[in-house]
Amino acid sequence: MSPRRRDSESTAAARAERRAELLAAAAEVFASRGYSATTVREVADAAGMLGGSLYYHFDSKESMVDEILSTFLTDMWAAYDRVLGSGLGSRETFRALVAESFRMIDTYRPAVVIYQNESKHLAQSPRFTYLADSQRRFREMWLAVLDRGVLDGVFRADLDTGLIYRFIRDTVWVAASWYRGDGPLSADEIAGQYIVMVLEGILST
Amino acid sequence: MSPRRRDSESTAAARAERRAELLAAAAEVFASRGYSATTVREVADAAGMLGGSLYYHFDSKESMVDEILSTFLTDMWAAYDRVLGSGLGSRETFRALVAESFRMIDTYRPAVVIYQNESKHLAQSPRFTYLADSQRRFREMWLAVLDRGVLDGVFRADLDTGLIYRFIRDTVWVAASWYRGDGPLSADEIAGQYIVMVLEGILST
Amino acid sequence: MSPRRRDSESTAAARAERRAELLAAAAEVFASRGYSATTVREVADAAGMLGGSLYYHFDSKESMVDEILSTFLTDMWAAYDRVLGSGLGSRETFRALVAESFRMIDTYRPAVVIYQNESKHLAQSPRFTYLADSQRRFREMWLAVLDRGVLDGVFRADLDTGLIYRFIRDTVWVAASWYRGDGPLSADEIAGQYIVMVLEGILST
Amino acid sequence: MSPRRRDSESTAAARAERRAELLAAAAEVFASRGYSATTVREVADAAGMLGGSLYYHFDSKESMVDEILSTFLTDMWAAYDRVLGSGLGSRETFRALVAESFRMIDTYRPAVVIYQNESKHLAQSPRFTYLADSQRRFREMWLAVLDRGVLDGVFRADLDTGLIYRFIRDTVWVAASWYRGDGPLSADEIAGQYIVMVLEGILST
DNA sequence: GATGAATGAGATTTCATTCAT
DNA sequence: CATGAATGAAATCTCATTCAT
């Protein structure tokens, strides 16, 4: 490996790392103040630079959310696809998907919050059609899992699967809005209890 | 009753009705575009008037959300208080509160959506301290119901009540974001299925 | 004519008149400082309002030049078309077109200056394709007139018509950059002398 | 001559050459996009470097145009002065000045374009007073030539010399905006035809 | 009650310029 | 010499709000 090669690698890597840092700062602010209510200046403050300086790294405020969301969704689908491809039964697929979702919340909390709060509005813009696509695919994935589970006799047949789907979806993702990595329960513990609640209900038997 | 009195009554009533119409339009727009992303002009368009004209009726954009949210919350607490004051058991109180919440979603859908999406940000302003108050009271109410239910042996003791509380809260209110009054299921039917899911789980037994 | 009708007429007319006033101010500033060197604030100052207020009337700085140029070009082509449609001979067509051009300079001086200085740059943007179209049509018009004149024996055959065309085009329009309506010579007098110079040359005979 | 001296000479020469290259690139961009509309980054792109790097060579964007224009004007006046000092008659002086001007366009096309488009605006700044000076001197030179020619009986006496001056000035320089060195006609051929047109007119006799 | 024009604060974005490496 | 990141001033544009009519 020539020094030249190492140089260009390290600068490209440094660049990517800087972008990631800035996006992390931006995501935090977007998540806590709301995307359209946060000013570019606030993002820059959080990143320790001046407003205009962000434009050296990003085209626009919009391109920041774009990168935040698309990075998250790409990773999320990779994780889901691993689960779906591993040949588990209905019940285990269910567990694994919920657990994976909580791991996503753990890793990408601000991105998930932004996704929850803004994707409906953003999706109207042509730049963000992938949000609607992701949502559609998400729905199809869950309905497939649930329908298979009903046929298998794993899930109850007396409930509307569309309703169950929404129930799970909301239930899982909204956790991002209150989850703190530094709380008493780890992501996996929370996932575990959620799974129990959803599968068995909260009634004592 | 003098004609004068009748006049002022009818104009006062007409005035209130006009306000309500305008607020309904505003709520719809705030809910669909997001509060800080919607312009006063958009609200005015939806109300069939020009931007400046809204200021005859309202002090500010902020006072519109304020009135939207406080009207909704006042009504919601009246309903909850009726339930809490009627001496039901844990299980029935649970059912009734969830059912009441779905009725709220049915009646105040846009307000509920705004509440979901914006209350965290708005609550920072002194004008909206009642939002945080409401949230606190809401939490206390549910924890009381759940704790009593655990003591009664109605609810499982092996789950974190804080987690159950959040589970229910999110589960119920997020429904506002997809609920349409004109869908196939009525509010009460949806509430019924939700209650079954939450109480008994989705596994077949 | 009902008062109603007169009202709506007068407000629509007032609106159009205000736009025209503002565009006149803008054109003056664009012409003297250059389009991209003049700030919206300078235009607003010239119009006696604040920067933001211009956006009540116009979408953008660009839409101002757009309207300035397209208004001018529309009128110019109407005038040229009248000339071309009136069945004059080569020499008289030539005279009439040059005279009409000077009249345009008289009426639309700032617009003509802007056209001269900025159209090459602006034409790159898709919004301003009509500028290139106009230029093409202009070239075809003059070449037709000149070619016919050469065939008629009115114009010399020993000169490149393409060169004559450019000679005339530049010669005529650049006058906008120094012409003042309040100078000693009227537009028609200047046109007269230009025509003599171009037709007969500056040598004494 | 010491090696040291030779070194510094060669690096000074290299330095000057690099400056010239960069200025050539800058002039091209300023000419095609307009001075104030082109960004330093665009100049740098054209020069194959990054924006900041230009500041190793030049103080500012302004000093670039400054050097471009002053180099051109210095050379132009040297050429004109040679003509004026060579004792030619009115007609020959006329011819020689026009021919020299077309040679300038050939050599300094982008600089001439910039001069045409921007000098009026730039001249306002104290740094560019030499532009106004040059223009004044140019006017005096031509009026002297024309007035002498009228007295000599070479030029027509029935035309306003001020008008002829402008006619010639515009006619000649605007050619820079369309002239391409690689076109079918050489600079001297174009100059020849222009001279004929201006002197004898375009009418056949 | 509503309109239409304007205000003015502030948001996003641009860009010439600087400077450590 | 050149890079890449940052600065900071200023530009374009947005929008809640005001107000005369």
From TrEMBL, chains A, B, C, D:
Cross-referenced InterPro entries: Homeodomain-like_sf, HTH-type_TetR-like_transc_reg, HTH_TetR, KstR2_TetR_C, Tet_transcr_reg_TetR-rel_C_sf
Name under which the protein is recorded: AcrR family transcriptional regulator
Gene3D superfamilies reported for this sequence: Homeodomain-like (1.10.10.60), Tetracycline Repressor, domain 2 (1.10.357.10)
DNA-binding in keyword set: yes
Signal peptide: none
Positions of the HTH tetR-type domain: 16-76
PANTHER family given in the database record: HTH-TYPE TRANSCRIPTIONAL REGULATOR RUTR (PTHR30055), HTH-TYPE TRANSCRIPTIONAL REPRESSOR KSTR2 (PTHR30055:SF175)
Keyword annotations: DNA-binding, Repressor, Transcription, Transcription regulation
